[in-house]
Design goal:
With about 425 residues, the chain is an all-beta fold. It is built from 1 helix and 31 strands. It folds into 2 domains: about 325 residues, no CATH class; about 70 residues, SH3 type barrels. The strands form 6 sheets. Strands 4, 5, 6, 7, 8, 9, 10, 11, 12 and 13 form a 10-stranded antiparallel sheet that branches. Strand 25 and strand 26 form a beta hairpin. It is globular, with a radius of gyration of 21 Å.
Length: about 425
């Protein structure tokens, strides 16, 4: 097969020196001579102060209807955005780096720092450093879409994933805003010093292998079908219908990804062979690389690297979880005075009825504890209930912080109207 065809996008930088777009070494280093994949760089930024491990990575697509807006807010980590279609205006009172789609190959990003609206069109990119304010609005007459990548602190002691600077917004403030999570992952380790956040589109012809990559790396399926078995390493699976931190899957599990689902490799992944007849494939790949990596090895061999074997697409696998119980006596799973048998439906808003209720990564008292929830916390039901350990669990997400997602025992939830 021919060598990789690399379409180089211009570099973005957050608090550092932009890459020379002609210096493609860090991306070409992931290529291998026997591949014919096309790799388009969509977003790339050098981050001086990335969140330390554990770090939460998210890739998402946000659709804004005409007139819709996202209220002013900040994140405790960097955010990169690319306008995929339409016209979006941004306000960046704390500063950001903007790179236009028609910029010259050697152009430096434009530093913007103003309350007034700045209009971005298709292909334009913007990068926000940690803690910087941002506001988005669709000023056009058609839907606008943003491809966004964020890196946030993880773990039970993490700060809120988003803080709204003008007060907590209402549901009406998000009218016409449709976010779709394309992939989540929690990295147990992060590169030292400056890091590069890189988002690429991989287009693979029938039978082309999936390239190896150093980690942390997230693969989100855009088109096609992908089924595999995780043979070795640390692999997490997230599905667009159930966003949030996920535990490592049990090795030997057969997994099928459908568009919008993703696989995350905390330490990296080895090349995945795909036989002829496996079909064309399009993936979005989000990587965290050391800024000073130079020629990174295309076949990482550190402990924990994901090794996959390709499988014919079949039925969706049930992903089992193998984690050590996390004892936190201040939080509880034991039923209290909550409503029993509430029968919630997807999209319902519910309220937590006791303090320090455990939010679990899976519907089991042995699963990883994502966070402790305070009494009165408002959550949104994201799917049907599941049984685990003689308890009924509901998948939930914090509507104001989509990184806070998992399962809660039904007995600790009651309809929001009851409050």
């Amino acid at each position: 097969m021919a060598a990789i065809t690399l379409t180089v996008a211009l570099a973005l930088v957050v608090g550092g020196t932009p890459w020379d777009p002609g210096d493609t070494g860090r991306t070409v280093a992931l290529a291998q001579d026997d591949q014919s994949a096309t790799v388009d760089v969509l977003l790339r930024a050098t981050i001086q102060e990335a969140p330390p491990a554990p770090a939460f990575l998210r890739l998402l697509r946000i659709t804004l209807e005409p007139g819709a807006s996202i209220p002013a807010h900040t994140h405790p980590g960097p955010e990169l955005d690319r306008v995929e279609s339409g016209t979006v205006s941004i306000a960046v009172p704390d500063g950001a780096q903007v790179l236009r789609a028609d910029a010259a190959p050697d152009a430096a990003p434009e530093v913007v720092n103003a309350e007034e609206e700045l209009e971005l069109g298709s292909g334009d990119q913007v990068a926000f450093p940690t803690g910087n304010g941002m506001r988005f609005a669709n000023t056009g007459t058609e839907d606008a879409t943003l491809l966004a990548a964020v890196v946030l602190p993880a773990g039970s002691q993490r700060p809120a994933g988003v803080v709204y600077t003008d007060g907590t917004p209402s549901d009406e403030d998000f009218t016409g805003v449709r976010p779709s999570v394309l992939g989540d992952g929690t990295a147990a380790a992060m590169p030292d010093g400056e890091v590069v956040v890189l988002v690429e589109r991989l287009t693979l012809a029938d039978g082309d292998p999936i390239p190896a990559a150093p980690g942390p790396v997230l693969l989100s399926l855009e088109t096609g079908a992908l089924a595999f078995t995780a043979e070795e390493g640390q692999v997490q699976i997230s599905r667009t219908a159930q966003p949030g931190p996920q535990p490592n899957i049990t090795l030997g599990t057969l997994v099928e990804l459908t568009p919008g689902d993703a696989a995350f490799f905390s330490v990296g992944m080895a090349e995945v062979d795909r036989p002829d007849g496996s079909g064309d494939l399009e993936l979005l790949r989000m990587s965290i690389l050391p800024a000073n990596a130079g020629a990174a090895t295309p076949a990482p061999d550190a402990e924990g690297v994901g090794v996959l074997s390709f499988e014919e697409a079949s039925t969706l696998a049930t992903v089992t979880v193998e984690v050590e119980p996390d004892v936190t006596p201040e939080a509880t799973d034991e039923p209290g005075d909550g409503t029993d048998g509430a029968g919630f439906s997807e999209g319902d808003r519910v309220v937590v009825t006791e303090d320090e209720v455990r939010l679990r990564a899976e519907p089991s008292t042995d699963a990883e504890i994502v966070s402790g929830l305070d009494q009165g916390a408002v959550l949104e039901i994201t799917g049907p209930p599941e049984e685990g350990g003689d308890l009924v669990w509901y998948p939930v997400v914090d509507p104001n912080d989509l990184t806070l997602a998992g399962f809660v025992v039904e007995d600790f939830l009651e309809p929001e109207e009851a409050e």
